Amino acid sequence: MSDAAIEARRLTLIRFEHAAGAAFGCEDEATGVPPVRALVMSTTIALATFATVVAATITYLV
Fold first, then answer.
1. CB atoms within 10 A of CB 7
2. Helix, strand or coil for residue 32?
3. Which residues, 6+ apart, have CB-to-CB distance to 35 below 8 Å?
4. Do the beta carbons of residue 21 and residue 28 sit within 8 Å?
C-alpha cells in the first residue's frame, strides 16, 4: 500500500468513528474534562475520603 492510500484509509476510519459516536450520542473527545480539573476532582475525593476515615476513627475511639 502506498502512503497516500494508508492516509486515505486512516482518515476514512476516523470519519466512520466520529459518525458512529454521533449516532450513539457520544461527545467529541475535545469537549471532555480538562486533565487539570480531573486531577483536582480526584484529589478532592481523596481528601474527603481521608477526612471521613479520620472522623470515623475518632468517633470509634471516643
1. 11
2. coil
3. none
4. yes
